[in-house]
Amino acid sequence: MPLNLLLILGALTAFGPLAIDFYLPSFPAIAQAFATDVEHVQLSLASYFAGLALGQLLYGPVADRFGRRKPLVFGVTLFTLASFACALAPNLEWLVSARFAQALGGCAGIVVSRAMVRDLCDPLTSAKVFSQLMLVMGLAPILAPLGGGLLLDAFGWHSIFVTLTLFSGICLLAVLLWLPESIPAGIARPPLSGALGQYRRLFGDRLFLGHALTGGFAMAGMFAYISGSPFVFIELYGVPAEHYGWLFGTNAAGFIAMAQVNARLVQRHGPEYWLRRAVVAYACCALVLLALAWLQPAQLWPLLIPLFCAVASLGCIVPNATACAMAGQGAHAGSASALLGSLQFTIAASSAMAVGALHNGTAVPMALVIAGCGVIATGWSGWVRVAERRQRG
C-alpha cells in the first residue's frame, strides 16, 4: 500500500484514540471548571464510546452503497464542527452532548479505513497493513496525553479541543485532495434496504462474531485502562497531570512495538495462530494486575509492569482479530467493518462505565474490569476454535 495512503488511513483511524487520549490529563481541570468530580467527567468519555458504537452501524451500509469517500467527507466535517463545539462548552451537559456528536463524525474514519484495507488487500496482507496502521495510530496515545498536558498547563482545557478542530480540518483537506475511491467502478453495490439483512447474516457468521468479540473484549480492557488511569495515576498515586502522558506514552510504545513485531510474525503462522496466543498472554497479565491492585501497594510501579505487558499484547490482538473478522466479507466490507467497530465500542463503553460505577478510591475497579475483559476474550477465542473444528468436520 502506498505510504501516502497508509498515512491518511492511519490519521483517520487515529481520530478515535486521539479524541480520547488528548483530553485525559484535563479530567481534573474540567471537573473543577464545571464544579463536579472526575467520575462525572467520565460521562463525556462514555458518551463518546456510545457515539462510536451507534455511528458505525450507520456508516457501514452507506459506505457499501455510495462508496467510501462521500460518508468519509461528511463524517470528518461533523467531527471538526463538534470538536469546536466542545471547546465552547459552558457546562458538562453541553460537553457530553458535543462529545457524542464528535464520535458520530469520527467513526466514519474508523469504518472506512478498515473497509478500504479490505478492498485493497487479501487477508494476510490486511493483517500486515493493520499492524502498520497501529504504528501510525499508535503515535496518538504517545503524543496526545503529552500534548494535552502541555496545552492544559499553558492555555487551559479548551485549547485541547481547538487543536482537535485544526487536526481534523487538515485531515479533511487530505481526504479531499489525495484519498481515492477504493471500490472499483462497475462493482455492484448493495442497496440500503438490505442493511439489516447484512447485519443478521454477520451475527450468524460464527467466525466473524467470534473474532469480533475476541478483539472487542480485549479492546474493552484497554478502554477500562483509559477511563480509570487518570484517577489511578493522577489522584491516587499523585502523578502530576503534565507527567501523566509519559506513563501513558510508555504503554502506547509497547503497543506499537508489538504491532510491528506482529507484522513479521503473521508471515510465518498467520494471524489466527498469533491471535489465540496473544489473548491468553493478555488475560494472564491482567489477572496479575488485579492481584497486585488488590494488595493496594504504596507505590505505583508494581502495577505498571503487568499493565505494560497487557497493553503491549493488544498490538498483536487488535490487527489479527480485525483481519480474521474481515476475511471473506468482500462487497459487504463496509457493513462488516461497521458491525465489528460497533460491537467493540459498545463493549468499550460498558467497560468504561463499569470502572466509574465500581469506583471505590483504589485501583481495584480498573484492574478488575481489565481482568474480566481478558478472561472473556480468552473464552471467545476458544469458542472460535471450536466453531472452526465443527466447520471443518
Compact overview of the structure:
With 393 residues, the protein is mainly α. 84% of the residues lie in helices and 0% in strands. The protein has a single domain (3-179, 194-392), classed as MFS general substrate transporter like domains (Growth Hormone, Chain: A, Up-down Bundle), CATH 1.20.1250.
Polypeptide structure, described:
The chain is an all-alpha fold. The chain has 15 helices and no strands. The longest helix is centred in the middle third of the chain and has 33 residues, at 123-155. The protein is globular and about 60 Å long.
CATH fold topology:
Growth Hormone, Chain: A
According to CATH, what is the class?
Answer: Mainly Alpha
Tell me the radius of gyration.
20 Å
Number of helices: 15
Based on the model shown, name its key terms.
single chain; 393 residues; mainly alpha; Growth Hormone, Chain: A; 0% strand
Q: In terms of topology, how is this protein built?
A:
Elements: H1 3-13, H2 15-21, H3 27-33, H4 38-66, H5 69-87, H6 92-120, H7 123-155, H8 158-178, H9 195-204, H10 206-236, H11 241-269, H12 271-294, H13 301-326, H14 333-357, H15 364-392
Helix pairs in contact: 1-6, 1-7, 1-8, 2-7, 3-4, 4-5, 4-6, 4-14, 5-6, 5-8, 6-7, 6-14, 7-11, 7-13, 10-13, 10-14, 10-15, 11-12, 11-13, 12-13, 12-15, 14-15
